[in-house]
Design a protein that fits this description.
Order of helices and strands: HHHHHHHHHEEEEHEEHEEH
Oligomer: single chain
Number of strands: 8
Strand content: 15-25%
Strand order of the largest sheet: 4-3-2-1-5
Shape: elongated
Largest sheet: 5 strands, antiparallel
Radius of gyration: 35 Å
Distance between the termini: 146 Å
């Protein structure tokens, strides 16, 4: 091998890499300047994440254009170019979707609508990514001559394979369509507070096949999305985040209910999570030994209503212990006292 035949490919590769790095530097410079000039949108800053796949696409294109022979290197460059183009398309799509969502969230204060749009764009983004990957994988397979020669036989058996694949993938396809139904049916959204199988938590992630709920004690419950289209569950965020909660006490019949109402309002005014909509107290039931007192309170969301309920329960019990301990339930160990000015069972004495 002479020196010229060795230096030529080295020079070609070095020149392609130099052009690629220069183009990447210029692209990053332009995106940084655009990001600084247009602070109202994060699009240009997000597009800077596309620099690695862009460099790979440009380098593969240059090398393939300079290396025109159809050999193993040319085939490898074609595969790299297809994979890099798919990577670049996914990054661009992600940047555009994230930018649109960020601007929508900034312009719309309605948290429920923002979470609904977030759920929809997340699932759409996953669908687009899956489609791009499948198309890219198919294009890479078609570059192999062996795959083209077996194409006729594959098409001939496509009917049987389709039936088998449909039966085998019935569960996966069911979850896929359930994920799309959740995204556009607006039944559950990322950030919603739900109760599933007696577990309370928030929806943390929704994909095309599964959904993750983060419970109050930081556990994660993962279940197929088809569960939310086939079984009942509680969605506390549906129709608005505002919540109404109740607090119950079992007290003695002598409990000062009117004073408790006044104390409840004083307690609620000192609880910042209370939204001021409702704060009432009433006796809702009675037994031979106690009365059931219920307080109704409100807050802006499920987290705050839990805080308000705990604060009201704790402070009102403390107030009763301090100022009205007789109001707490107790077990009588002596005979009941007769009412005042009462006569003996046999009637008034006769003289």
């Amino acid at each position: 091998m002479d020196t010229d035949s060795l230096l030529r490919p080295v020079a070609v590769v070095a020149g392609a890499l130099a052009v690629t790095l220069l183009a990447g530097w210029l692209l990053d410079l332009l995106l940084r300047r655009a990001d600084a000039r247009h602070s109202e949108t994060p699009l240009w800053g997000l597009l800077r994440r596309c620099r690695p796949p862009f460099l790979l696409v440009l380098a593969a294109s240059l090398l393939q254009g300079l290396h025109r022979r159809r050999d193993g290197w040319g085939h490898a460059l074609t595969l790299v170019l297809i994979a890099a183009a798919a990577w670049l398309l996914v990054r661009i799509t992600t940047a555009v979707v994230d930018s649109v969502y960020a601007r929508y969230a900034a312009d719309h204060p309605d948290d429920a609508r923002v979470r609904r749009v977030r759920t929809q764009v997340t699932l759409i983004q996953r669908v687009v990514t899956a489609v791009v990957i499948v198309v890219a994988a198919g294009a890479m397979l078609l570059t192999f001559p062996e795959m083209r020669t077996v194409g006729t036989s594959m098409l001939a058996s496509a009917g049987v394979l389709g039936i088998v694949a449909g039966i085998a993938a019935q569960s996966a396809l069911g979850n896929l369509f359930a994920g799309l139904q959740i995204a556009f049916g607006d039944t559950v959204r990322i950030g919603d507070t739900v109760v599933v199988d007696k577990e309370w938590g928030k929806v943390e992630e929704i994909t095309l096949t599964f959904l993750t709920v983060r419970t109050w004690d930081e556990r994660r419950i993962t279940m197929p999305v088809s569960y939310f289209t086939s079984k009942p569950y509680e969605n506390w965020s549906r129709g608005g985040a505002q919540m109404t909660g109740t607090v119950f006490w079992h007290l003695d019949h002598s409990a000062p209910v009117d004073l408790m109402r006044e104390q409840l309002l004083r307690i609620l005014k000192d609880v910042p999570e209370w939204d001021g909509r409702t704060g009432s107290l009433a006796v809702t039931d009675t037994t031979p030994h106690t009365v059931l007192v219920r307080a109704v309170v409100t807050a802006k969301d499920s987290d705050d209503i839990w805080t308000v309920r705990c604060a009201v329960r704790e402070r009102l019990i403390t107030w009763l212990l301090t100022h009205h301990p007789y109001a707490l339930p107790h077990i009588a160990t002596s005979e009941a006292l007769p009412p005042p000015d009462s006569s003996p069972p046999g009637g008034p004495s006769q003289r």
